[in-house]
Amino acid sequence: MTSRNHVDTELQHDWQRFVSQITAPANLAIRITPATLWIALEDLLMEWRALWRSEWFAAVKDQLINSKWTLKDLMAHVASWAAELRAQAEILAGGTGVGYQILFDEIGGPRSWNAEKVEMRRSRLLEEVIGEIERETVRFQDLLFDVDIPRLLTEHPIGIAPTAAPGQPWIRSIAGLVEMRCIHERHHLNRIIEWKRAKLGGDL
Q1: The domain containing residue 22 runs over which residues?
Q2: Which residues, other chains included, contact 34 with Cβ-Cβ below 8 Å and sequence gap of 6+?
Q3: What is the pTM of this model?
Q4: Cα separation of 140 and 185, whole Å?
């Protein structure tokens, strides 16, 4: 049986790989336009919808998918960040940086913030949590066409900073926030698929 220490080590390595992705410079090899960003969010939403429509998904919503969260909790976590990144993008669209910070621990990220936001959504039905992700995707997509391309690409301090250096926030553009959201959610989407195959077998 896998020891708790071994599991914790694996989670730490997984977290470090994830953070290295979202802190890496944006890949601007393709031409960034409102349409390309809209498509990126739409493709992500379609991947979620395929998962949500799976026969097994709702049936296991209350099963633990990691050491602390059920599948529904994880969806609440995804919803909280969908809302947060859209809100921060709205601030950047106004031409300024974000004036607050969500502090990221070196291991585990913004644990207290994550826990608070999941707890806020815990009493909601799974369908309500999924509905929030859907709505926040549409709101972010709409925002992309409300600003010009230079503003989409202009970088500002965002509301995320290392706990060890709260005065050094991450620097991102609206396009960068779209990329962050896609990386974050695909990380969790892939982990759900891996969990399903390990626990229930088969494909989606």
Answers
A1: 4-199
A2: 144, 145, 147, 149, 152
A3: 0.86
A4: 15
CATH of the domain at 33: 1.20.120.450
Count of structural domains within the chain: 1
Tokens of 181: 């959201």
CB of 195 within 8 A of CB of 65? yes
Distances (CA, A) of 171 to 81, 90, 136, 149, 161: 17, 15, 22, 18, 9
Question: pLDDT digit string (tens) for 107-150?
Answer: 888 999 999 999 999 999 999 999 999 999 999 999 999 999 99
Residue 88 lies in a domain: yes
Give dist(CA 132, CA 52) in Å, integer.
13
In a domain, 204, yes or no: no
* Beta strand residue intervals within the chain, DSSP E: 102-104, 156-157, 160-162, 171-172
- Please tell me the distance from the alpha carbon of residue 200 to that of residue 204, in angstroms, as a whole number: 10
Q: Looking at the domain assignment, is residue 91 inside a domain?
A: yes
Cβ count near 100 (within 10 Å): 11
* Torsion angles phi and psi, residue 70, rounded to 5: -80, 175
Is the pLDDT assigned to residue 35 strictly greater than 80? yes
